[in-house]
Amino acid sequence: MSLLSAPPVSRPLGNSGISISSIAWGMWRLAEGGRTAAEAARLVHAALDAGINFLDTADIYGFDGAQGFGDAEALLGDVLANEPALRDRMVLATKGGIRPPLPYDQSGEYLVEAIDASLRRLRTDFVDLWQVHRPDILTHPQEVARVLDDAVAAGKIRTLGVSNFTLAQTDALDRFLGNKLVSTQPEISPLRIDCFENGELDHAMAHGIAVLAWSPLGGGRLLAPQSERDKAVAAALDGVAEAQDVSREIAAYSWLMAHPAGIVPIVGSQRAERIREAASALNVRWTRAEWYNVLVAARGVPLP
């Protein structure tokens, strides 16, 4: 039986002309446990040396509900201050617009403040991708677009994206932007398959938008399945994992990457060996039947 196409080593970041690795590394938990700049640097090196050049963070990462807002950005900024040459090896993405306890704020005044604060913490003059983290339904998209376009014009941001937006919210913001969106970041995993059937991936392909998947392991549930559905999906992944001598998590990443939308899974591990291992997902190949077996297990019912 013929195999689905192998994922490329790199993919375009939308229509930006920027090339990103087909796997990303995310820093949601970078600042946990009092990690030092030297320890964080080892993780950055592990990603870059494995060919993972797309690094994704956010101003809210590290926040525990009381303090630590911006900690993950600041820690990465310390790494870059100590080794400035690393900045040229990465495509750096961050996010903003969550402002506890409001909880969301994309008013023009706050967005200007949030973008500048991220740049200060990251010790960089610009980010390659800035994403609206979650939509603020109390701010008109025209106001958001004005601030973001101004930031691009000022050289603070190279490209723009959204995270956790509906299709209508994405289109509304893009309508007012001079610098069109290049990415969207929804939750996607073999356990979170909404986007395969609700039009999100079709919309991204039609508009040339890169798809970045957060929580590609289902919040860890794929590694420790509890429900019958979780176990069924894990078993379908294991069939391919065992045949190709990879772990279940690598099979899960590669399952997403096999989709024609070019889904980029964001690896959340903060262990160097697992970050390096993630790059092996590029070598896993799927048959059409194997791929659909996972989807059917996730749906819980046969395909129509």
Task: Summarize the structure in words.
The protein has 11 helices and 10 strands. It has 304 residues and is of the alpha/beta class. The chain has a single domain (10-225, 247-284), classed as TIM Barrel. The strands form 2 sheets. The protein has an 8-stranded parallel barrel with strand order 3-4-5-6-7-8-9-10, surrounded by 4 helices. β5 (91-96), α3 (108-122) and β6 (127-132) form a beta-alpha-beta unit. α1 packs across α2 (71-82), α1 (37-49) runs parallel beside α10 (272-278) and α2 packs parallel to α3 (108-122). It is globular and about 55 Å long. The protein starts with 9 loop residues before the first strand and ends in a 5-residue tail after the last helix.
List its salient traits:
11 helices; 8-stranded parallel beta barrel; alpha/beta; TIM Barrel; 304 residues; two-stranded antiparallel ribbon; 14% strand
